[in-house]
Amino acid sequence: MADNIKYEPGWSLDLTCTKPNEPNSGDPVRIGNLTGIALTDEDAAGKTAVNTGPFVAKFAVKANGGAGIAIGAPIWYHDDATPVLDNVSAGGYYYGIALEAISAGQTATIRVYHDCAPGGAGTLGTGSISAANLAEGAATADKLSIVANSRPIIVPLGDVSGNTSIVAFVAPTNGALNAAKIVTKDAVAAHDTDYWTFALTNKGAAGAGTDKIVEMTTEATGGTGLEAYTALSLGTLSTTHKDLAAGDVVLFTATKAAGAADLTEATLMLEFLPAEVS
Fold first, then answer.
1. Can you tell me the distance from the alpha carbon of 106 to that of 41, in angstroms, rounded to the nearest whole number?
2. Alpha-carbon Rg of the chain, whole angstroms?
3. Domain spanning 146-274 has what CATH number?
């Protein structure tokens, strides 16, 4: 046997418990992200013999959150609750699996299977589940970040020398626009007479809508010029009108005032979020 193994299998250890402050024999306990059962009362040195491995023990458990506890349901450790074990994951540390059922709102002493999975607050510990353990389709869109869910829409506008309107996007499903930007090859200086006005309008599914999603100009007063090869945000999108139903049409317009410089090799960039994260 390797001479650096100190305990085999290493389930029972003398530990300083995080909670409760002074464990008694038989208490469910937590040591950081590690959980177990106290085998002894805490000693004068602040140590408690703890079994952190697989076992079945009877504990007081409460069915919180408006739902009962079914056989096989996960049980969570809550530091300052009475009792400390219940079926609510939020703010809890994973403890084990219920082997008996409890009705909603009731507290009962039941058998709990304690396994060895560590639990961070409200979740299993990092590394407890790998990508290989996930079934196909298990990671649904609502569990991904906004960045992961964003659908980029690139609309080449080409060279624009006068007033222009173009259907920029048709929503494939319910969702919302998250951002709108424009970029050009050449700079367009901000100017209060010679300027562009850019707008996005939600035309709806029938094309009759007039709700402005966003509008900005290249005016020197209250607007922003374009720098070459630098994406310029069209501004904060309307919290109401950026929401799209499936089939809604988004119209982009560029309106030229006086002698505004032409837009060269212009491109419109939109970000769309499906309904799961919109």
1. 28
2. 30
3. 2.60.120
